[in-house]
Amino acid sequence: MEVIAPAYEAHQEEGEVSLMITKHCLRFSYNLCPKQAKGVKGVMGQVRADPMVLKSGDETYTLKFECRSCEMHVMGKMKKHVLKSAPPSEIPATAPITFFKQRPVS
Fold it and tell me: Has residue 22 got a pLDDT over 90?
């Protein structure tokens, strides 16, 4: 058995966490990929997978790159209003869901 980190929704993560992992890489799209530069004369060793910043409105996300596995991690912090609310595990369950074979007559 292996103990894993708690889910992001459990409100136990502090600071930046990986919100999304994707194979679509912005460094590759902008021809800044260290794997693409490998072997190119004059460029070898100069292109590194340094973090980038993605801005969308008031939100700022840090992009970190795992070049060996060709992955881009979108990192972000939990919003304050979400952190103040109760985690899903503490919200009381509502009435149980009932399934019907046919639509009930109302």
Answer: yes
